[in-house]
Amino acid sequence: MKLKRLFLFGLSAICFIMTVAFGSQTVSAQETKSETLYKYIQATHDIPYLPVSYQYTDWRERATKFNEMLFNMKDYNLMFLEKESKNTGRESIGIVSYTDEERKGEYTQALTLIGALLSAEKLNKERIGEEQLNNLVQFVESYYNIEDGEGTLLNYQNMDSTELSFWQQIYPALAYFMLMDRYEATVDSDAMLRNIADTWYEVVMDLGGSDGIVDFGYTGYDFKNKCPFDNGEWIEPDAAAGIALLQYYAFEKFNDRKYIKAATLCMNYMDEFQRNPGYELLYLYLPYLSARLNSVEEYHFNTAKYMEFFFTESDYRHEYGTFNGDFATGLIGERTQYGGTPYSFQSIVGATALVPMLKYDQRYAVEVGRYLLQVTQNLNLFYDVDDPVYGNLIPMEKVQKDNETANQRLSVLSGAYLGLLAAMIEPTNVEGILKTDLNTNEYYVDKEKQNPLFLLFNPHDEEKVVNYRVTTDGTVDLYDLVSHTFIEQNVTKETEIQIKSTEAVIVLEIPVDEGDNQYKIDRKVEHSVTANVPVATNIVGISQYEPISDNYPIDLEIKSTDDAAVSDITIYIDGRPVFKNVTYTQPYVVKVDELVNGYHLLEAEVTTNTGVKDYSYARIFIQKEENPYLINAHAHDLANWTSYKEGSIQLREEYKEVVIGRKSNGGAISEPFEIDFSQVPMLDLQVEGFTGTWSLILKDVSTDQEFYLLKDSTESGHIITSMSYALNKLNSGRFSLLGKHEVQLAIVADSDDSDVTVNSIRIFNQGLQPLKEREWKSSFTTQKITHWQSRLNALAKINYYQGTANVLNLNPNGNGGMQTSYFEVDLSKKPQFKIKVEEADQLWSLLVYVESRDRGYYLQYPTNKTGTFTYDINKALEKALSKEELESKLNLQFWIISNGEYGSEVKIDYLRLEYSKNWIELIAIGTIAILSVIAICVNLNKNS
Questions:
Q1: Which of 426, 644, 700, 759 is most buried (CB neighbours < 10 A)?
Q2: What is the predicted pLDDT for the residue at 3?
Q3: pLDDT class of 11 with cuts at 50, 70, 90
Q4: Rounded to whole angstroms, what are the CA distances from 243 to 216, 226, 250, 259, 610?
Q5: How many whole angstroms separate alpha carbon 497 and alpha carbon 481?
C-alpha cells in the first residue's frame, strides 16, 4: 500500500511539473480513422491546385525533337568528336553545356552527356538506334579522372577536385549509377561503379563514419590529399543526401552491406538538421530516399521534414529554393534575385527526383500532383525564345522576373534532362489531369516485380471521370494505393476512373492470370504495394509565419488506418520539446510567455503503437508584445523619413509603396532607434522593384560610422536576413558593434536617375532562447557542436573531423571563432568551463559573453598551450558585474577563437560547462567511491 501511495504521489508530481513546465496554451487534436491519408505542406497552402490559364504543353514532343537535334552531329554542332581523351587515351564524344561554349572536351560536362543518354534511352531509342546509344555510353569514361590523380568520376575531364564543390563531385557519379542501370555494362563500367562507390564510402568514413557519426559541413573533398576542403564562401551539408543515395544504389547493385551502413550514417546526419541544408540539388532527393528506406529497409527517417526542405528556402544559400508565390511557382532558384531567378536545370531535376517517392509514401499524392502541374506549366518561361539556329528547343539557363531575358544563355545541359521529366507525364482526356508514371525515374529496383504505377490528380472543383488506358498486356485489376481499395477488376485495354475534387489516386496495375481467385489477387497486391504509411499528421489553420500570441489554439489533424493507433504526441519549437502527452485525449498546453519573439519552427511528432513516427511542421512568428518591432515602417511611414544625401522620397498611395532615390547614394533615412545586437535583430523587407542597384545602410549615431546591410543589391520581393550576419559579411574588419546601440537605417539608390520602390521595412529581435541547465550536456555533443554558429565579427566554422572538434579561422582580416548557444547560468553556484585542446596551429583563446553587453571577457587570453583547462567564470566576470549580478542567473555565451591567419585551426577534444561541487557533494562522491572499493574487496575475498 505504501508503495502504491508513493507511486501515485510520484505520478502526481510528474504531472504537476509537466504542467508548470509546459504552460497554458491550448492545442487540440483528435485522431480519426481513414484508409485515405493525405499530408499537406504549409509552404504550398496558397498555391492553386490548377495553375491560372493552365494549358498542357507536350513536353514529350519537345524533348524528343531536342534529342534528335542533339544527336545529329552532321547538321548541328552541339555534340562533337574528340580525337583523344586525356583519361582514356581513346576517341571521345563531347557535348557543349551551353550553345555559346567553345567546342573543346576540357569544357564539356559529364552531366550533359549522361543526361542526354538517359533522356534518349527513354524517348529516342528507336529513332537514334539502340546500338548507337550503347556505343556512346563508353565515352562517359572520359570523365573518370585518372591522369590527374583524382581517381574518381568528376564533372570535367581535366580539373582539380578542389575546383569543384560537393554537388559537382557527387552528382555526376550519382547520374552515372542511374545511367548504368538503364544500359548494358561496358568493359570497364562495373569496375568504375565499384570504385566510385568505394571512393565515396571512404569519404564517409574519413568524415567521421569510422566513429559512427559524420559531418559534411565543407565545400567539397580533395581526392588527391584525401581530406575535406573549404573555400571560405559556402558549405554544402546536403552532400550527405547525394552520397546516401549513391551508396544505396551501390548496395542494391553489389549487395555489400558496407554501402547501406554509409547511407545510414549520411541519413542520420541529415535527420539531425532543423535548418534546410540545401545548396544546389542533392537535397531534392531526400524525400524519395527517406521514403524508400523507410518502406523497403524499415528505417524511420523523417520524410515529412525532407518534404519541408524541398518546398522551402535553404538556410545555407540566401533565398534559394522552390518558388511558391505568384511567379514561377514550382520552379527552383534564387527567390529574390531580380524579383525571382529560377534555373531550368534544377527545376527539371527537382521534378524527376521527387515524383518516385510516391511509390513508398502515398500520403503526398495531392501535394506532388499539384506541384507537377505548376512545374510543367511554368517550365514554359525558359522556352520564351526563338533562336535562329535552334528555335525554341533549347531552354534558357535561367529567367529573371525584373530583368531582360534576351541575353540569357541557352542551356543544352537543361535540355538534356527534359526527357527524364517528359517521359513520365502524359495528358488524359481531362485538361489538367496528368497521368504520371512513378517508375520512370526510379533506379536499382527488381524490374520483373515492378508493376505499372501511375498518379492521377484532379485539381478541379468538381469530380472528374478519366479515361484510363491500361499499359499491361492482358487482364489487370486496378488498385489504388491512396485509398487501399480496388478501383476496378478484370480490366482490359481501357476503363473509366472517377476522381473526387482535389483528390488523387495512385493506380497500380495487377496482372490477373486465368484461374486467379481473390485470395491470390490479394497476395499479389500485398507483394506489389510499397506505399502503406499508416498515419498522417497535419498542423492546420496556421499560415506561414502567422503571428502566434497567448492562448492561440494549435489544431492537429491526425488520421490513421485501422492497423495503427496513436500512442504519443510531442510538440517542439525549434527542436526543443514544449509539450508531451501520452493519451492525447486531453487538451495540450504550451507556454508562449516562455518563448522569445521572432521566427520559429513548430513541429508535431506523432508516434503509433507500431513504432511508426509522423511529423508536421509550421513556420510561425511568436509575438509576445502588441508591437514587437524596432521599426515597422509601411509606405506612409517611409514617406516621412528624412532625405539622405539629397535623395528623393515619393509616396504612391494607390499602390501602397514609396519610391526612393534619383541621386547617386541618395535616399531616405529613419529616425534614430535603439538596437541590441545580442538579441539577433532580423530585417524583414518588402521591395516592389528597382531601376538600378540599391543599398541598405546602418548608421551608428554615436560615431557616424556607416555599415552596409545590403550592398549593390539586385533583389526584390520579400527579403528576410539576419542583420548581424549581413553586417559582418559586408563590412569585414570594420563592424564590431555588440550589445545596445542607437542607430539609423538608410535605403539608397546606387546611381544617378535610379530608384528603388519599397512597400515596407520591419526590424524585430529574433530573440534568444537560452538553454536551461538540463540541456547543457546535450548542447556539447558532437551533433550539436557542428551546428554552432560562427562568431559574426570573426568568421569561422567548426567541424567534427578525425575525433576532434576543429575550429577553422575563415576571417581574412584577423581572428576567427565560434559561439555557443546562450546558457542560463546561476552564478551563485560557481560555474566552471572546461576545455581540452589537442592542437593549435597558432594561438587560441576563450571568452565569455554576457547577454546585451558590448564586449566579451577573457577566460583564456591568446595562447599556444594545449591540454586540459578549467576556468572560474565568476572570476572572469567579477570586475564587470555587480555583487548582486554575481549571485543571480544570467544568460552567458562562450566564444572559442582561433587567433591566427586565415586557415589556422584549433582542435578540441571536449568542452564542458558545469557547476563547482560543494563539500556535501564531494563527501557523497568520496563515500560512494570508498564503498565501491570495499564492495570490490569483499567480492574478491569471497571468490578467493
A1: 644
A2: 36
A3: very low
A4: 10, 16, 10, 10, 30
A5: 14
Q: How do residues 463-502 score in pLDDT, each as one tens digit?
A: 999 999 999 999 999 999 999 999 999 999 999 999 999 9
Rounded (5°) CA angle 778-780-786: 110
Instruction: Please state the three-class secondary structure of 94-123 as a single string.
Output: EECCECCCCCCHHHCCHHHHHHHHHHHHHH
The band of 339, judged by pLDDT with boundaries at 50, 70 and 90, is very high
- Partnered with residue 857 across adjacent β-strands are 848
Of 50, 80, 78, nearest in space to 66 by CA: 78
Instruction: Compute φ and ψ for 466, nearest 5 degrees.
Output: -105, 135
CB distance 128 to 135 below 8 Å:
no
Residue partners of 735: CB distance under 8 A and separation at least 6 = 707, 727, 728, 793
Q: Measuring CA to CA, which residue among 313, 303, 415 is closest to residue 368?
A: 303
Is the model's pLDDT at 147 over the cut of 90?
no
The string of pLDDT tens digits covering residues 575-594 is: 888 888 765 555 555 567 77
Q: Lowest mean pLDDT: which of 135-139, 763-767, 812-816?
A: 812-816
Gap between the Cα atoms of 617 and 334, Å rounded? 23
What pLDDT does 158 receive? 83
Give the CA distances from residue 812 to residues 320, 352, 404, 733, 845, in Å, rounded to whole numbers and listed in that order: 26, 41, 36, 8, 18
- Please give the backbone phi and psi of residue 284, each rounded to the nearest 5 degrees, phi first: -70, -20
Nearest to 287 by CA among 363, 209, 236: 363
In three-state secondary structure terms, 816 is strand
The pLDDT of residue 88 = 81
- Residue (of 273, 215, 199, 235) closest to 804 by Cα position: 215
Residues 623 and 613: their CA atoms lie apart, in Å, by 30
Identify the CA nearest to 421 among candidates 56, 63, 66, 111.
63
Q: Residue 240 gets which letter from DSSP?
A: H
Strands 681-690 and 755-765: antiparallel
Q: Which of 410, 242, 398 is nearest to 320 (CA)?
A: 398
Beta-strand runs (E) in 483-523: 485-491, 494-499, 504-511
Long-range contacts of 854-862 (CB under 8 A, 24+ apart): 854/737, 854/738, 854/739, 854/740, 855/738, 855/739, 856/738, 856/895, 859/833, 859/894, 860/835, 862/897, 862/899
Please name the residues in contact with 371: beta carbons below 8 A apart, sequence gap of 6 or more.
44, 311, 330, 351, 354
> Residue 174: which residues within 8 A CB-CB, separation 6 or more?
242, 245, 246, 249
User: How wide is the angle at C-alpha 625 spanned by C-alphas 621 and 631, nearest 5°?
Assistant: 80
Residue whose C-alpha cell reads 476503363 in the numeric block: 495
Q: Taking the complete model, does pTM exceed 0.85, yes or no?
A: yes
What would the pLDDT profile of 841-876 be if each residue is shown by its tens digit?
999 999 999 988 888 899 999 999 999 999 999 999
Q: What is the mean pLDDT of residues 213-229?
A: 94
Residue among 535, 634, 649 at smallest CA distance from 38: 535
CA–CA distance, 163 with 920 (Å, rounded to integer): 60
Q: DSSP letter at 685?
A: E
Determine which of 681-690, 821-830, 911-920 has the lowest per-residue pLDDT on average.
Answer: 911-920
Q: Helices marked H in 562-606 — which ranges?
A: none
**Cα-Cα-Cα-Cα dihedral sign, residues 937, 939, 940, 942:** positive
Based on the number of CB atoms within 10 Å of its own CB, is 206 exposed (0-12), middle (13-18) or buried (19 or more)?
middle
Report d(CA 247, CA 241) in Å as an integer: 10
CB 31 within 8 A of CB 584: yes
DSSP state of 590: E
Q: On the CB side of 837, how many CA atoms lie within 13 Å of its CA?
A: 23
